[in-house]
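Structure Section — protein described below
Tokens — whole-number codes for backbone shape
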Amino acid sequence: MILEHAVFAITPGSEGKFEAAIDEAKQLLAATEGFRSLTLRRGIEQPSTYLLLIEWDSVEAHMVGFRESDRFPRWRELIGSYFAAPPVVEHFEAPAVTEDGGA
């Protein structure tokens, strides 16, 4: 499983419209093979900043299955007009950490 981490700086005053746009646009993600879940969080110290976490089966599910699909332009059309700056997007995987429970 891969976790996509996207940080959005939204134009102040358009937060409610951005949240409504994400709510509408999430169906485009859900229609993509390899999509698992979506979580959106709003900044406390910077309320015009949002963190979007999306779980994918693989980086390819996001970068090829979604970004190269006909759904991606519609996604950007719905949410892109609220961006105050380009989003910062990164992918993360679980590290190889082991726990043996011993002392």
